[in-house]
Amino acid sequence: MKTARLYFLLTFSVLCMATSAIIIRYSSAAPMVIGFYRVLFTFILALWLGGRRSLNECQQLSKKDYQLIIVAGIFLALHFSFWITSLNYTSVSSSVLFTNLQVIFVLLFSIFILHEKLNYWIAGGIFIALAGSFCIGTGDLAHGKIWGDMLALASGLFVAVYFIIGRKVRARVEIWTYTALVSLAAAIVLLAASLAMGLNLSHYPAREWALFFLLALGPGIAGHGILNWALKYVKAPIVSVSILGESVGASILAWILFGEILSAYQIIGGLLILTGIYLAASHEEPQ
């Protein structure tokens, strides 16, 4: 594939991902319901894109693959429920930045669980990112936003586990098959939680249904779908680093649409986090 076309698609996918927090802010539905319909519509779209090939592959998967996909789906459901909720308690920029620390969590899991090598660049990057997190967390604590930051941080931990499991399964399962199945697993978890909480699942205006669908089509399929597809053509660290653009794009959109102006501590902390993630991810050892 031509390099220019590939990087155009990567840029497009990051822009799509940056709209996720913005779309959620426009929705009046409960966080659990938003997460449910996002993964439900993602399941439908991925199954349609995979077509008969995905249906055939589903019949050939091993019991172990299905078990891993179910566990990944549970962590994906936890990620969405915590992250979407965090947007009610903190700014878009802080929420996305803390969630994107998933890159650091993935590296830490790889080092301590998978026993991958730790070099000075990764160690320095992790330290800088954590320093940036402390800077933002301290500032948000003074402004009563620390609860939202902690929810976003937890969501980053959950999605990191989801990615670690995905690394194993995706080596054997085609992208749309995996996306459809893991989204279905997450949808079942979020549906059960929504029913248990007595949340409204059906009585919404057309505007809300459009937002649910856009979350699946934009950030879901065009965003994460393209990034996962790009792993076939570029190294994983490049894809990991490209995720940093989501934080910048979401912050700009939040400023334009909601008037969320970044404080000095958010700018300093955000730059430290982005720098740390870049240094750590770009110097990760190839798989």
The overall pLDDT, averaged over residues, is: 88
Based on the structure, what is the oligomeric state of the protein chains?
single chain
Number of DSSP strand runs: 0
How much of the sequence lies in strands comes to: under 5%
Judged by helices, strands and strand pairing, the structural class is: mainly alpha
Q: Flag low-confidence runs.
A: none
Order of helices and strands: HHHHHHHHHHHHH
Number of domains: 1
The Cα radius of gyration reads: 18 Å
Biggest sheet statistics:
none
Shape: globular
Give the end-to-end Cα distance, rounded to a whole number of Å.
21 Å
**Count of separate DSSP helical elements:** 13
Structure overview:
The chain is mainly alpha-helical. The protein is built from 13 helices and no strands. The chain has one domain (14-282). The longest helix has 30 residues, at 31-60.
Topology (SSEs and partners):
Layout: H1 3-18, H2 20-26, H3 31-60, H4 63-86, H5 92-99, H6 102-112, H7 120-142, H8 146-170, H9 175-196, H10 206-230, H11 236-242, H12 244-258, H13 264-282
Helix pairs in contact: 1-10, 1-12, 2-10, 3-4, 3-9, 3-10, 4-8, 4-9, 5-8, 5-12, 6-8, 7-13, 11-13
Which features does this protein show?
287 residues; globular
Question: How do you describe this structure in short?
Answer:
This protein has 287 residues and is mainly α.
